[in-house]
Amino acid sequence: MGRFAPSPTGPLHAGSLVAALASWLDARAAKGTWLVRIEDVDTPRCISGADQTILSQLAQCGLHPDEPVVWQSRRGALYQQALDSLVAQGLAYPCACSRKEIEAAQLALGHAKERHAALPYPGTCRQGLHGRSPRAWRFNTTDFYQKVAPAPTPQAPTAINSEANFLPWTDRRLGRQVQDVVSAVGDFVLKRADGLWAYQLAVVVDDAAQSVTHIVRGEDLADNTPRQILLQKALGLPTPAYLHTPLVLDVNGEKLSKQNGAAAVDLSNPLVALNQAAQALGLPAVADSHHISVFDALAHWVQAWSRIYNDAP
Asked: Which InterPro entries did the record assign (predicted)?
C-alpha cells in the first residue's frame, strides 16, 4: 500500500510530479494499492481549489488513486485521540514558548541558527509551565528513550539505541541512516500554538489508519522520518518501509518548491512531463514520445522500477 500526499498550496510542479510518479510506480510494481491524501492541516498555507487542481493534474498523467481521496482537515478527531494517548503515557506535554524565546534560549547555549534549519527545542517546558499559559503540545523525546525505546538486537538491528539516543533506519534508496533526535530536533511539536495539528503527528496517524506499508517521497523529507518512527513506536503503530527520491533543483541549486515560486508543471503534453520526471528518477526515457501513449509509457516505467528496486513492496 503506497500513497502520494501533496499539500494544496498550489498546483503540482516538476518536483512534486517526480514524487507522485515514484509512489505510483512503486505501488504498481508490487501490484499494490495507491492512495492520494490531501495534506491540508496547515490551512493558512492552503489555496482554495488547489486540491482539485492537483487531482486533475494527476488524472491527466494517468495517475489515478485506487480508493477515495482523503483530506487531513477532516480527520482532527483521530489526531486528538493520538495526542490523548501520548499525554496518558507521559510522552506529550504543553509548551508555553514562542519561537523567539526558543531561539533566545538556544543562542544563550551557544547554538546559532543555520539557514533553512530549525533550532532544537531546549526542553524549557518539559518540567512544567510554571504559571505560563500553554501554546502548543510537544513530544517528549527524552522520556521516550527512557520509557519506550527497546535496545537493538541482532534480530532487530534498526531498533532504537536507548543509551545513545540514536535512531537508525534504512532507506530503500539512501541506505542506512542514523539520527539523534534529542540533539538534532529536541521535543518536537504535535499541536501548534495556533491550534492546528502538526505534520509529524498527522502523517503518522493517517499512514497507519490507511494501512500504508511503503512510503515514497522526496529526499527533503528524509530527516522527518526519525521523528515519525518515534511516534509510531510510542503509539504502537507499524513502521512502513521508506524510499526518498532525488530532488529536482532550480537554476540556483535550491530545491524546486512552491515556496520558492516553482511554476506549475506544463501538462500540455503529459507524456513530455512524465518523461522528464522518469529521467529524474533514473528511469529510461520512452522513445518517440509523440506516438506512445501515457498508458504504455507508465507500463514501461513500472518494469524499469521493478528492476531497480527489486525489494519493492
From this structure: Glu-Q_tRNA(Asp)_Synthase, Glu/Gln-tRNA-synth, Glu/Gln-tRNA-synth_Ib_cat-dom, GluQ/Sye, Rossmann-like_a/b/a_fold
